Amino acid sequence: MGSAAVRKTAVVLDILVLITFVCNLTALPLAPALVYWRYNPTFFAAKQSLGASPLSFWLEGLSKVWSEPRTAALALFLLFSGVCTAVILWQARRVLKTILRGRPFSAENAASLNRAAVCAFLIAAAALVRVVVSVRLYRSVRPLLNYNALFIAVFSIAGLLCLVMAALFRQAAELKAENDLII
Amino acid sequence: MKQTIPKNVAKILRVLLLIAFVCDLLMLPLVPALVLLNGMEPLEALAVSGMPDAPIWLLAIFLMAWITVWSYGGHAVMLTLFLLFSGVCAAVILWQGRRVLRTLLRGQPFSAENAVSLRRAAVCAFLISGAALVRTVSTAFWKGPGAALVSYTALFIPLFAMAGLLFLLMSGLFGQATAMKEENDLTI
Questions:
Q1: What is the longest distance spanned by two Cα atoms in chain B?
Q2: If we measure between CA atoms, which residue out of B38, B55, B36 comes closest to residue B46?
Q3: pLDDT tens digit string along B71-91?
Q4: Nearest chain B residue (CA) to A105
Q5: Is B73 helix (H, G, I), strand (E, B) or coil?
């Protein structure tokens, strides 16, 4: 795969990452209200029958979500994970920009990937806390079988992968610097 | 000072990938039964029922499911095929990941072999994305576009397409780094 093909792939990936980043930022302010209405379907139906506007749904959800520990914990988890994923996506865009500039092997990319790794580990830790709290709260192993439990493994692996990639980029950057010096 | 790949991190990652690979292979034969029973709950209920011959019943359910699932209509067949196909592709991706990590542990990260492994992983990721697209379209006809678009399967389409592009990009970068290293070695 030549450098032109690499750049073309990077352009497509950059656009997809930007779309995901925008979707992430758009979903963040909606998350607390969505959590509140998910756990209060009867209030939702009653409000809907009164013909309430989307803005009033959002404002009421945002103000009431913190009143119950269950909904507050989920809203906090989603907000925290959302911010971390936004940071990961932004770091990915930084890496892609260096590839588009034709300088993929730079120490700057290693630093970006290290930051992404930290965020991935933070999401894994938040998911772990949520699973442990759920197991203790519901006194059941059911929380171990949901998507949240899967996030612990997935984001731990993603974090480790980012660390390895950071080290590889650093090594390649050194190799390139050595090569440039010889030339 | 020359930085090297943190081998402990690579070792941990390799073990985690092996665990994921084994779990994937273990889940594959259970797919038809899980599709027919619509999840784990009926099996959990049977397992904790205290029936003396519960393990034999569980085994019989898994074996019979492989025969009967194909006559359960379009939705069950589509879901079974999708999960089996995606499971095999995921296993290939995990195996390629292990191959790449093995070269890192050997101290030869920049090799053409890694570029090939990552390209294979990219193909498998695109295949999963394609299969998810087929399933989403078929669900849209089956249950309506609303139900199809808010499912996890719909999320898999961009997710695996992006993973495929990422693998392809990494494959290209590994190829470039390999060429650079060969040049460096030749100069020395």
A1: 73
A2: B55
A3: 877 788 888 999 999 999 999
A4: B177
A5: coil
